[in-house]
Amino acid sequence: MKAWQVGELGSPADVLTLAEVDLPAPGPGQLRVRVLAAALNFPDVLMCRGDYQVRPPLPFTPGAELCGQVVEIGSDVTVAAVGDRVCGMAALPHGGFAQECLMEAATTHHAPESLDDASAAVLTIGYQTGWFGLHRRAGLQPGETLLVHAAAGGVGSAAVQLGKAAGATVIAVVGGPEKADVATQLGADHVIDRRSTDFVAAVKELTDGRGVDVIYDPVGGDTYQRSTKVVAFEGRIVVVGFAGGEIQSAALNHALVKNYSVLGLHWGLYNAMAPQLVRECHAELSRLAAEGRPAPCQRTCPPVGSP
Fold it and tell me: What structural domains and CATH numbers belong to the chain?
């Protein structure tokens, strides 16, 4: 079969090579699937560079998230049968940027019937991260105000849609007019282009100085530090990641004085520590998808070998 492989670490454009490889064999708790659509995520880029906490052995095929049709199951697999359409996480180093790949049964779900292949392929990482961050960690309530950084990105765009589905007023912060258009199309109530507008001043104006109840921050660094200026009384800041490249430090005396919470979110840990919650999350996302809320943003690539 054909697969995009990384033989040496570096920028994806430089190190990805289309190769002919053997079909992978599923081990215990794994499935082999025909890839219908594979998602493009920032961790895939970081893995190609060798900058991610997960470092598959070389050579490897990236593509951590996908939608596929089951063609073979290993032992101890009960979540799906041959022929089922599923979505979830690939079992690296046999990722989704290939005609066929392996998936871990523990992170595999039935693809919602209401979603096409491309939409189902992006339902796991970004949307489950958003659901756990907003609901499990931050306890977002209808009528509250949610500030989403990097709102046109993968996890940010999911948080915008899930925030609206939860009945929140959503303020989206983006970098550039094209991304502002994306955030508007996603349903954000207010969109701030940080390249032309100081988001701190803008948020204070939009909230009459009160601030926001929940801040969803995948960026880190200075973005986090400045966000503390606009968190409301009893507000919650959800630390999702550090896409800006700088890991921030939290001034806990400031959290004490302003009476807000700083909440860490490691979505992948739920798969190990609370798998039933992950199943419940997928069921809720499937219900929302059937209602058209959310309509997942399709940052996917077609199957390898397709026209």
Answer: 2-123 (3.90.180.10), 142-265 (3.40.50.720)
